[in-house]
Every structure is written in C-alpha cells, then in structure tokens.
Amino acid sequence: MSKVEEQDPDRIVADAEERAREAQALVTAIEDRIMAGDTSVSHEDLSSQISVARALALVVEGARTKAAQIREQSRGKALEALRAEIESRAPESGAELVTRLRAVEDAAREYLAVAEAYSSLYEGWRLRLGQLDVKPGRLDHGVGYTEFGGILTDEFTLQREDGGKYLHMIFNAPYGEPARLLLTHDEKRRDDVYRILGNIGKADA
To answer: Do both 181 and 150 map to the same domain?
Structure first.
C-alpha cells in the first residue's frame, strides 16, 4: 500500500485549511495593527504574511486534489474487491432456490390436503349430529356438539378449525380468501415462476 493510500483524505484537507485560516488571520491582524496606527509594523511584515497566506491557499487546493486522488484509489480498490466477491459467491443458477420453492409448494399442498380432509370429516360429523336431532350443549348417547361448533364425546372435545387459516398466518398473508388460493393453479404461471427463478444465477455479460 502506498503512502498516498495510507493517508486520511479528510484529514489532509482539514489540516491544510486550518493552516490557511491561521495564515489569513495573521494577515488580518497585521492589517488591523496598521489601521490602528501601529508604526512598528513594516510593509515587509504585511507583504511577507500575505505571501504566506496565498501560498497556503494554494496548498489547500493541492490538498483537495490529493484527497480526491486518494478517494478515487480507495473507491477503485473497493469496487475491485466487490467484483471479486460477486464473481466468487454468485450462484451459477437458481437451481437451489427452485428446489427449495418446490419443496415449500409441495409441503403447502400436502398440508392443505390434510387440513381439508379434516374439515370434511368434521363437517360431515356435525351434519349427521343435526340430522339425528342432537341438541347443542348436551351429550346424546355419548356424543354431541357445543353451541360454538365443537363436537363432544365422553372422551374429548373436538374443535372446529380452518386449517387453511394457519397457512395464511405462517406466511403472514392477509386472511379472508381460501388458503388454496395462496397457491397458483395456473400451470403456465407456475412454470414461468420456476423458469425465472432458475435463471437468476450467472449469465454472460
């Protein structure tokens, strides 16, 4: 690493500006003394300090140029490092994501199939209890149902649940429509999703 790269560009400019301000302040102080009638101040004192102030003003411009060069060198190295990271870590394709998304989709479809099968069983039992004139809130031959829809037996209470609701919840999706609508049944759209996802990796520039 060169000495230029080791220096702080902001510090370089700040130091040069501080020296230039101090030099200009001395010019102002000498001028004030002359205007106040101080005859001990010579023309050479003023012109010498003005010369110093002008030189340090140029130093400030040089410091800004040097700082810009350091920043550009630093920027270039950062971009080279970023490019190397991108080239080394970018996936060759989206194959792994496709595999993972297919697994999510398959698992969601299997979950919904189980949830819908449970709901179908529950609704069938509830319908048959009504058909058999079982009154809510009491057991009749060891079976019944609550006013809120739960099915009762001597052994347990079976709650009515919309399993699809929990799929909405786990995906943080708005609840209101059937959960199966979270999964597309449009085969073309589905194929497009997997095709696009599969192509997210490296491609020729």
So the answer is: yes
Range of the domain at 99: 95-198
Helix (H, G, I), strand (E, B) or coil at 63: helix
Q: Are the C-beta atoms of residues 98 and 92 closer than 8 Å to each other?
A: no
Q: How high is the pLDDT of residue 3?
A: 53
Q: What are residue 158's DSSP bridge partners?
A: 151
Residue with tokens 């000495």, as numbered in its chain? 3
- The C-alpha atoms of residue 26 and residue 105 are separated, in whole angstroms, by 77
- Residue 153, pLDDT > 90, answer yes
In angstroms, rounded to a whole number, what is the distance separating the alpha carbons of residues 159 and 150? 5
Rounded Cα distance between 155 and 164, Å, is 27
Task: Compute φ and ψ for 177, nearest 5 degrees.
Answer: -100, 160
pLDDT for position 187 = 84
Beginning with the edge strand found earlier in the chain, give each strand of the sheet holding 139-140 in spatial order: 139-140, 143-145, 151-153, 157-158
How many CB atoms sit inside 10 A of residue 53's CB? 19
Give the DSSP per-residue string, 71-140.
HHHHHHHHHHHHHHHHHHHS-S-SHHHHHHHHHHHHHHHHHHHHHHHHHHHHHHHHHHHHHTTPPTTSEE
Domain check: are 134 and 155 in the same one?
Answer: yes
Q: Are residues 120 and 171 in the same domain?
A: yes
